[in-house]
Amino acid sequence: MSNHYACGIVDADATRSAAQGILFGRLLSVCVSEKGVRSIHLSNESSATFSSCGEEGEKIVALDEWPLTLRDMFREVERELQAYGAGTLRRFSVPIDGDAYATWHSPRGEYWRALREIPYGETVTYGELAMRSGRQKSAARAAGQACAKNPWLILIPCHRVIASSLSSSLLPSDNHLEKRLGGFGGGLELKKRLLYHEKM
Questions:
Q1: Would residue 31 show up in a list of annotated catalytic residues for this protein?
Q2: Catalytic hit among 7, 31, 147, 158
Q3: How far is CA 28 from CA 7, 100, 193, in A?
Q4: Are residues 117 and 61 part of one domain?
Q5: What DSSP letter does each residue of 3-58 carry, written as one string?
Q6: Strands (DSSP E) found in the chain
Q7: Is the full-model pTM beyond 0.90?
Q8: Domain membership flag for residue 97
Q9: pLDDT digits (tens, 9 = 90+) for 19-76
Q10: What does the alpha-carbon distance between residue 162 and residue 169 come to, in Å, rounded to a whole number?
Q11: How many independent structural domains does the chain possess?
Q12: Model confidence at 2, in pLDDT bands (50, 70, 90)?
């Protein structure tokens, strides 16, 4: 069973309208193993789909047909993502399956682990993330590359890493805001939405 993992769709905005939600109505593709969360990405699906992968290969199966350990893990991740979307959860407790990626045990993994320690509602620069990972501030580019390759959207909060310091207000009228935010795999509008959500 240790090779099994399963993927399903989560609506983190289940308690809000698309206009009020943190993901603009987008859904999340969440993959879990018995060890924890393997990945979270924005989904291209518009409705719930579930798949399971093991020794027999990948197949589409109903959530109720998943092994109980995977189903329970998925439901807990879903509960926490929806609580985050509703503004009632500030720190995730679900485990991460870092062993799903060889890079978890490399310098990139050190950046990912440092990302998990950035508190809700706070931001750090890429240079500060480098230093939190035991590197020189000049390793900001490597920190940015680790953020770009982060397979755990929201759960490992790369949206909290920015190019340069921001005021606490995050004023939308700031003409230089996008340059100061840096990049984000989900797009800068989503990065801004997540940061505003955590500042509320």
A1: no
A2: 158
A3: 10, 19, 16
A4: no
A5: T-EEEEEE-TTTTS-TTTSTTTT--EEEEEESSSEEEEEE-S-SS--EEEEETTEE
A6: 5-10, 28-33, 37-42, 50-54, 57-60, 124-125, 161-162
A7: no
A8: no
A9: 677 887 788 999 999 999 999 999 877 666 677 666 555 667 778 888 889 899 999 9
A10: 15
A11: 2
A12: very low
